[in-house]
Design goal:
There is one protein chain. By secondary structure, the chain is mostly helical. The protein has one domain. The protein has a two-stranded antiparallel ribbon. It has a two-stranded antiparallel ribbon with strand order 2-3. Helix 1 packs antiparallel against helix 5, helix 3 runs antiparallel to helix 4 and helix 3 runs parallel beside helix 5. The radius of gyration is 20 Å and the shape is elongated. The relative contact order is 0.26.
């Protein structure tokens, strides 16, 4: 690889974006007018820790020089745990704190599910023997042949 080229592994990129999406979703409404931080006592912090741990493990596996993590190689179990917790919240009724009838699910819970799925896919791709990467190269300026100086 030359000095102008850089390869970005796709697995850690997708997984880290999923982790960020899950973390952001915790601040959005999961049910009508209620965020995850309002509805849960501890589960919101567990999901935030799983998102951060998965991102750290994926970035360490990608070889980010500034990041050394004891979680390296453990991205898949962390991401799978986050996916399981979000799926349980999607399938189950809302927490009792919201009342017995429970409001409808809104944007935040679906973004959390999407983020957890992306985290898991990124961890699976990173842990597999398949190498997917985005090749970022510095482009040379092109000139038209029709133009005359």
């Amino acid at each position: 690889m030359s000095a102008g080229e850089r390869r970005i592994p796709l697995g850690p990129l997708v997984g880290t974006l999923g982790s960020a999406l899950l973390a952001v979703s915790l601040f959005l409404d999961w049910w009508d007018g209620v965020t995850a931080f309002t509805a849960f006592e501890v589960l919101d912090l567990v999901l935030l820790a799983l998102a951060a741990g998965t991102a750290a493990a994926l970035l360490a596996d990608a070889g980010v020089a500034a990041l050394r993590s004891p979680l390296s190689g453990r991205a898949l179990p962390l991401a799978a745990a986050a996916l399981l917790l979000v799926l349980v919240q999607v399938v189950n009724d809302p927490p009792l704190v919201l009342g017995t009838s429970g409001p409808d699910q809104t944007t935040g819970i679906w973004l959390a599910l999407g983020g957890a799925v992306l985290m898991t896919l990124g961890a699976v791709v990173t842990g597999s023997r398949v190498s997917l990467a985005v090749d970022v190269r510095r482009r040379e300026p092109t000139t038209r042949r029709d133009e005359q100086p």
